[in-house]
Every structure is written in C-alpha cells, then in structure tokens.
C-alpha cells in the first residue's frame, strides 16, 4: 500500500497545490488535516486510496474544492456549501469586520441580503448574540443550505425569508443592511474560468456592468434603514467609485470604501443620517 507522505507529494504535483492535496487526503481518511503531519510514514488503506483517487479526479476536472469537501471555513467557522450557493471567500470577512466595528454591542436589527450559505448572517449572529438578524435570499435552495448551517451552529434564531432583495420585509426597519450581492459583469471572462464556472450564475452576475443588483439594493435601502443605520455592501475591485456615487445620489452619507487584505477596494458603506445630518463623502480608506 502507498505511504501517505509520498501520495501527498504526488497529488500535490498533480493538483499544483500541496494544500488541496492535504485537504483531499484528510477527507479521504475522515481525519483532520493536522493529523497528516504526524502520520506521513504510514500506509494509506486501500479504501481511502480509492476515495482519494476519486476526489483528485473531481478536482482535476475543475470542481471547486469546497464543493468536493462540502464545506468552507469562514471567520473561524465551517459552513456547509453545495453548488446551489456561492463559496464563502476570505475577502467577504471585511463585511463582518465593518459591521462589528460600526454597530453597537447591544440590541440591533440587521438584515443580510442574498445570504446564500448564511455565512455573513450566521457569523454576525454568533459574534453578537443580542442582535436580531434576518437572512433573505431569492433562492429556496440557498435558504435550505442556510437553514442547515443555522442548525449546525445552534443559530436557529436567525430568521430566514425568501425575498427579492428587501421585498419581503417592506415596511420593516433595520439598523443595518449587509450584502455580498452579485456584482460581476455579465460578459466578464472570469465567469468561464476556475471555480466560478461551477458556482450559481445568479449569485455572481448582475447586468452589463455588474451593478444592476447593487443599484436596486441601494435604492431600496434608504427607506428600510433606521436613521443612523448602515448599509454595508461588497463589490468588485473597480466598482468602489460607482457604488459610492449611487449611495450619494440616494441621499446616504458618511460614505467610505474599504480595502481588503490584498489592498483591493472591496466594501463600501454608508449611513442614513438623522435629520440635520450633512452628507460627507469620504475617500477610500485602508
């Protein structure tokens, strides 16, 4: 039987990624990845070797590792994922960080628009137990994944609604709206490459310039936010000025674009100021 360490090296070369080889090996053995480091000289059982071969072939065919494993880590927690939801990405953690910075520790009503796997809504619910959180999505399949994650994390208190943006909560008010909406331009060649080929198009693409959904969300947000409430939106690397402009024209204030850890403009936020507040447009900030 083959030795684990040798197989890891071989699979790493095939996949051009040692990390992916370790993740798939750990999955085939039903062991944590860290276990591999202390057992590199052990032989891989035949059944595990067969499972590993199948997983490697799936990855070589282009299937995302997160879909193969059925989960992806986000903000220190594992979230179930499948091809019905977008795979959580590290850059989206900036949405979490900004919400935690801007909003109070105490009671707060927040809605996550286009929740997908629920990684934003459920992370915020775990980090802020006093918050009342609603997660909405147009896709019943995505809401089912969100429900599974809520159950696994003990966060069933998060309300889940099928909704086209804010349509199902018309008349309600929130202290914050957060969203990682579709923002890729329809003709972007990246949609036909890599993992994006396998992710749901409805969670990625939004019109010719990628701003169609964001524009609608901003238009609805002003009437849904409480005075002093925040809108926090993830967007593409070159969309910060356009998103800030849409927010300004909608009457929102204290507008600022923040960069992710790669130094890329990633999230723009704005406040619905109380009466008498003057609009201040801030430059991009790190």
UniProtKB/TrEMBL annotation:
Family statement drawn from the similarity comment of this UniProt entry: Belongs to the protein N5-glutamine methyltransferase family. PrmC subfamily.
Organism the protein comes from: Wenzhouxiangella limi
Gene label: prmC
Binding-site positions, substrate: 180-183
SUPFAM superfamilies to which the protein is assigned, alphabetical: S-adenosyl-L-methionine-dependent methyltransferases
Domain Methyltransferase small: start-end pairs: 109-187
Protein name as annotated: Release factor glutamine methyltransferase
Catalyses which reaction(s): L-glutaminyl-[peptide chain release factor] + S-adenosyl-L-methionine = N(5)-methyl-L-glutaminyl-[peptide chain release factor] + S-adenosyl-L-homocysteine + H(+)
Biological process per Gene Ontology, one example term: methylation
Summary of the function given for this chain in its UniProt record: Methylates the class 1 translation termination release factors RF1/PrfA and RF2/PrfB on the glutamine residue of the universally conserved GGQ motif.
